[in-house]
Design brief:
This protein is an alpha+beta fold. Helix content is 43%, strand content 22%. It contains 25 helices and 31 strands. Helix 3 runs antiparallel to helix 7, helix 12 packs parallel to helix 20 and helix 20 packs antiparallel against helix 21.
Length: 939
């Protein structure tokens, strides 16, 4: 009755109407069967109404054989009607179930419908756990007044293997089963609890879907009940209906989860992903591309890719290549990595690595580009050369180095027959002209703007001007009929106020009525004669009847066309969804980064080719499965070689709701011995309700970048040590010179003071280089001891006040704030924060340092009212050698390497704290750090 493969477009009301119709037909058939059964139940020699006696046979295992019919026709009819009522209730519940309802939600309605409708006191659903291979008790229904708590508890604690207990037998045999007397059943583990609850008879039936059995319904009665074959057949049908509905719900939920996973992969990819259609217009722009180019997705969708992303000098060559490919299929640059220059939203240029692939879809072709900003890589490659120049500049003047960093369409159909509206109108007009003995019949419908009436159909002399007629609503005869909704009779058109002079020139009399459906006016129909004619009330009535039919046809045409349009839209949306799913799958497989997707249990369910290579597997299929099995084939380590604990692995972190884009590690394949340095970007996958249903991780091979960084760090360490010796000598000589000048009472010490400040700046630069080198090598030493953070803040304020000669406001508590820390290193962090606040704010603007405590933490914040930092630069502030592009120093020296905040972050994090920044351009910035408070000293 409710076959899930039936017409998907039927509404709930249509389905219920079909159910009622089938119920009536089935009831008539059943009453006929009852009469036949009643006659068969009588003895051949008995013409009275005495019932035929029956006996119930017993099997040795306690389960009853099917009984001999013993009831009268009324009892049999009542049983049949009850079973049908149960089937009707179950079917109605399935029709009304949501596509998000699982088996338990559907089962709750089924249990009540069957138990209540057939007079059973208790029912439960047993579901199959595929992992353990056992049946588990699910929803339980009890009839009002039944206390089955003891038996319910036993069911909750029980698990059943195939063949064990009544549910296990049904599962194993794949068919319903009946137990007339539980006390005589030697295979019922819950017997004691059932008898204590007063339960004596039971039957069960499987829940079967297209993929097999995944549950068993079980019902109990306090009375002994003989087997009922018809009831078991009905139960089997109910189980099949429930299975089909639940399996369809599960398939739809799986499809939604798949789309969510694919969208999460695109959204968390490290590379920019830009889709393009045949016309060269952008149709996909992921978050990485937004960050890379500075556009929001909505700004560029539908825009010409060349105009938005390619520098003007390269656009002609790009467009020529696209034309050649579309014309010849030449693709020597397709699916290959190439380096080129791209353009951001602010027209700035930057180098990228680009790979273009054609999406394997039907014509017309579509393309997707994977874009990687290689500015950092170019910088790394050029770093050694720049550092050599930096060394020479540091010996002379310690110059600074700066870094820079989207009813319906025309009525043509009728409700009476497809594509027959014009024929219908033509026949109606001919009949009207013949029946009313007129010379001209015309139908006028509103224009698109609704302000005028246009001739839609005409039969008669007026056909020659049909395309030129336009009657404003409210004016002329037709316009007044439309506005007033009343019939108008004109015996002499020479005396009428006309908009269309053609009527006066060719006709003498006219009758018009509105086309009405309920209280809506769809248009106007009027008839006219060449000679004088008086239209009677009968004529008016006849024309109104015709108008009603035409109006109904028009309205049904609107509805039919709307339905067709809605169906086309639905089909188009479904096709677009499928195409999108295929496109996303193609994009994932073509991404040059490794993509790993797991479900909520940690099982890998999707891996692209590059991801399989990262895992050391020969194919994507071979890479699927549990994450634990790769412990023997590959090992994931931190960059220093130590093993990453299971709880800290990328996908495991993502399943806990953590999102990161900068997780670095090293993977070593046991078979080949090859080791790669890799960077992970990972995030959880959530369903519509926000629950985590899986995780995705994107990986990139950064081995070459890591090697260059190590070379750079080694060079920094050597260069910094080499600079320390001459700097120390210069510092001593400067101090000796200053003392000699003071002893000679020479007041021109300004130059020596400048020399001291210059040497101090160079010394800070060298110390920053040394600290950066120590951090990378893990040799940054900390002397942790109990210290007063308030006193450290006072010393930092005093030192910066003296060196910058600017006031700094301190909001510090009078009482000590004790922390376990390296006081010198924390003061170094505070000096960096205060120095930045002073440099990037005007000399007259205030700088404030605040110290407070909250929830076991000491919180230090440094606030300025400077130029502020752009939002896209805030996340990069604590990276090595990073300086915000376009932000100018407001006071003091701009000399710096871009290492201060990087070193500060490492120092704070090694103290178990956190450093952060908030900024608004044009308003100012707040930099802060949190440190855990020290435990109170014991008396």
């Amino acid at each position: 009755m409710f076959d899930q493969s039936s017409d998907q477009h039927k509404t709930r009301d249509e389905l219920i109407h079909e159910i009622e119709s089938l119920r009536s037909k089935l009831a008539a058939t059943q009453h006929s069967a009852v009469r036949d059964a009643g006659s068969r139940l009588r003895s051949p020699t008995d013409t009275g109404s005495a019932p035929v006696s029956s006996t119930v046979g017993s099997r040795h295992d306690g389960r009853s054989q099917l009984p001999t019919p013993d009831s009268r026709r009324d009892a049999l009819a009542l049983a049949i009607d009850r079973r049908f009522a149960v089937q009707y209730a179950v079917s109605t519940a399935l029709v009304e179930s949501s596509t998000r309802d699982d088996l338990d939600a559907v089962a709750a309605h089924v249990l009540e419908a069957v138990g209540h409708g057939l007079g059973w006191e208790l029912g439960t659903l047993w579901t199959i756990d595929r992992a353990s291979g056992l049946l588990h008790c699910g929803p339980i229904w009890q009839a009002p007044g039944v206390d089955g708590s003891v038996f319910v508890g036993a069911c909750r604690r029980q698990t059943l293997a195939p063949g064990v207990g009544l549910p296990g037998r049904v599962w194993s045999d794949e068919r319903p089963a009946w137990v007339e007397n539980l006390a005589a059943d030697d295979n019922f583990p819950r017997l004691r609890a059932a008898l204590d609850a007063g339960l004596h008879a039971a039957f069960a039936f499987p829940v079967r879907g297209p993929s097999g059995i995944f549950g068993v319904f079980e019902f109990f009665s306090r009375a002994l009940r003989s087997p009922d074959t018809a009831l078991l057949h009905m139960a089997m049908s109910v189980g099949n209906q429930v299975g089909q509905v639940v399996e369809r719900h599960r398939a739809e939920a799986a499809e939604r989860a798949s789309l969510a996973r694919q969208a999460a992969i695109i959204g968390t990819a490290l590379d920019g992903i830009v889709g393009m259609d045949t016309d060269g217009r952008i149709n996909e722009f992921n978050p990485a591309a937004e960050r890379m180019f500075g556009y929001q997705r909505a700004e560029v969708i539908g825009q010409d890719l060349a105009d938005a992303l390619i520098p003007p000098a390269l656009r002609a060559r790009y467009r020529g290549a696209l034309v050649r490919y579309l014309a010849t299929g030449e693709q020597h640059q397709m699916d290959h990595r190439m380096e080129m220059t791209a353009m951001r939203a602010d027209a700035s240029l930057f180098p990228v690595e680009l790979a273009i692939t054609r999406i394997p879809l039907n014509d017309p072709p579509a393309f997707v580009g994977y874009i990687r900003d290689i500015t950092d890589r170019r910088r790394s490659e050029d770093e050694l050369t720049r550092l050599l120049a930096r060394e020479r500049e540091a010996r002379e003047a310690a110059e600074s180095v700066s870094h820079r960093l989207a009813t319906l369409q025309a009525i043509t159909d009728t409700a009476l027959a497809h594509l027959s509206f014009d024929d219908l109108i033509s026949r109606l007009l001919e009949r009207v002209r013949t029946a009313m003995e007129v010379d001209n019949v015309a139908i006028l419908l509103p224009s698109e703007d609704g302000k005028a009436l246009m001739l839609r159909a005409v039969l008669g002399p007026q056909e020659e001007v049909a395309r030129t007629v336009r009657v404003p609503v409210g004016r002329g005869i037709a316009g007044r009929i439309m506005a007033e909704r009343q019939a108008i009779v004109v015996d002499d058109l020479n005396q009428a106020d006309l908009i269309n002079p053609y009527l006066r020139e060719h006709f003498h009399s006219l009758l018009g009525v509105p086309l009405l459906v309920e209280d809506r006016v769809l248009g106007v129909i009027h008839v006219a004669t060449l000679r004088a004619h008086h239209f009677s009330e009968d004529d008016v009535t006849l024309l109104r009847l015709v108008a009603d039919r035409i109006a109904l046809a028009l309205d049904l045409s609107h509805l039919y066309e709307a339905e067709r349009a809605a169906r086309r839209d639905a089909q188009s949306a479904e096709q677009r969804a499928r195409a999108l799913a295929d496109e996303l799958a193609a994009i994932i497989d073509a991404i040059p980064s490794g993509v790993l997707v797991c479900d909520a249990s940690g099982q890998l369910i999707r891996v692209n080719r590059q991801g399989a290579a990262f895992l050391g597997q020969p194919s994507q299929q071979a890479a699927l499965g549990s994450l634990e099995r790769y412990a023997t084939t590959s090992s994931l380590r931190y960059p220093d070689g130590t093993t990453i604990p299971t709880a800290e692995r990328p996908l495991i972190q993502a399943l806990r709701g953590i999102t990161r884009t900068d997780f670095r590690g090293m993977i070593r394949h046991s078979e080949s011995g090859r080791a790669m340095h890799i960077q992970f970007s990972f995030a959880p996958i959530r369903d519509g309700g926000g629950a985590i249903i899986g995780a995705v991780a994107v990986t990139n091979d950064i081995t070459e970048m890591y090697r260059l960084e190590r070379q750079k760090d080694e060079f920094l360490s050597i260069a910094s040590h080499e600079l320390k010796t001459p700097l120390t000598t210069l510092k001593i000589l400067t101090q000796l010179t200053r003392r000699r000048l003071e002893r000679l009472n020479l007041l021109e010490t300004e130059h020596t003071a400048r020399m001291d400040r210059a040497i101090a700046r160079i010394e800070r630069l060298v110390n920053d280089l040394l600290d950066a080198s120590r951090i990378e090598s893990g040799k940054l030493a900390l002397r942790i001891e109990r210290c007063d953070l308030a006193e450290v803040c006072r010393q930092a304020i005093a030192e910066q006040h003296e060196s910058a000669e600017r006031d700094i406001t301190g909001h510090l508590p009078d009482a000590p704030i004790w922390v376990e820390a390296d006081a010198d290193r924390i003061e170094q962090v505070l000096a960096n924060l205060l120095s930045n606040a002073l440099k990037y704010s005007a000399p007259e603007s205030p700088v404030t340092l605040t110290l407070e405590t909250h929830d076991g933490e000491a919180i230090v914040s440094v606030e300025d009212q400077g130029v502020g930092i752009p939002p896209d630069a805030v996340d990069h502030l604590f990276e090595r050698f990073y300086r915000v592009p376009g932000v100018q120093v407001q006071s003091g020296s701009g000399v710096g390497l871009g290492l201060g905040l990087f070193i500060s972050r490492e120092i704070v994090e090694r103290h178990g704290g956190r450093i952060w920044a908030d900024s608004v351009v044009g308003v100012g910035s707040v930099f802060g750090l949190d440190l855990p408070l020290a435990m109170p000293l014991k008396d």
